[in-house]
Specification:
11% strand; 2 domains; Aspartate Aminotransferase, domain 1; globular; seven-stranded mixed β-sheet; three-stranded antiparallel β-sheet
Amino acid sequence: MRKINNKKRIYPHTLSVGKNKNLQKRTLDFNLQKNQFKNTKSVGVYLDNAAATATDPEVLKAMLPYFGDVFGNPSALHQDGRVAKNALFEARKKVAKILNADAGEIIFCGSGTESDNLAILGVSRFYKNKGNHLISTNIEHHAVLNSLERLQKKENFSVTLAPVKKNGIISAEEILKNINKGTILISVMHANNEIGTIQPIKEISEIIKKWKKDNMRSVNDPPFFHTDACQAAGYLDLDVKKLGVDLMTLNGSKIYGPKGVGVLYIRRGVQMEPIIFGGGQERNLRSGTENLAGVVGFAKALEMVQKNKNKENARLEKLQKYFFQQVLNTIPSVVINGDLKNRLPGNVNVSILGIEGEAMLLYLDERGISASTGSACDSSRLEPSHVILALGQSYEYAHGSLRFSMGKHTTKMEIDYTVKALKEVVEKLRKISPLGFGGKNNSKVNKKAFVSGGLPHWERKNK
């Protein structure tokens, strides 16, 4: 385990770009040296890989030429533009091969959120003359949920959020019973970002295809099937033909690639309206000069994680099992959130009763441990996790939830250190906590602990 101190916090695996002098020179002004990190905290244990992963040195190496020598606009007709365009095409082909898709079905965009937005807003608006009903689940990422909410509130679409079971997995039958003749889009995430549960995507796609056949719909008629696979990309098969999806969202920041780049797979025959307008790049669906370095980095990162996923999954599964056992054996009143079997191998999500998750995070951070209470995209909210609530748990469980997401640099020694630190933090906080061990009855939770003035947010909403 990397040594903890209170002066510096460095993640050494992110620092090296190789010994090649030319490559080091090509870092331009990135200066990936230790002295750049003088003002940061301490060498620590990073267990928030579901929020963001460190860019792999090999990925950075692949990206560096596109910050310097290869700088042309891929839309330009001159040689510099053609060189850039060829690099863009090669990256597109590489991603398409991994997804078992055609290169023309791959659209590059600015993030997983933008990809989700384009899929949901774009398809819904294009096919609104065919229907206005949309289906998703109640544990989706807010990039999906907020897009659906926008369509429902501002554009008169009807939205059904199918409930997951207590283990955090949606049943295909639950999706099927909500499909009607006005349904144009169904969106179900491949794997959940908070609790790691893997959804039955192939089974759902087969049910949708059967419904289409029974209702005299062709493959190019709605409803279409979208999956957000951002969390799944490093662990699960992404073959779009085997999965049977029409649209798939991916991004770079979860696979040891660059931030600021995402992908939307759009099966040929599916139409949509753009949500960004301009020069008509990306088949006129995502205007704007392409982020060539990011695209090349994404393709390299996806190639690497898919190639290594079986070996890495086996390693993480052992660590995950050990992590759960140590937490349950060391700390009383802990509940595991989500199914244990159908789960991403790097995910450990637990509710520790009687304590606020945010308080635990702050104390863990002081000890050099990075974790989260749920989605990093929602870290500024005071609301409890909608995912934990969707499992049928109370606000106490949701407020006391912690997510530890392991990655390829995680070691058993780091887990031992984390569990030891967590035990100390829990014991300290429980002594001063205003929360009781109330079980599933919300009335047993001291609501004054959550907001000033004693008016909790779930009651404040109704005022």
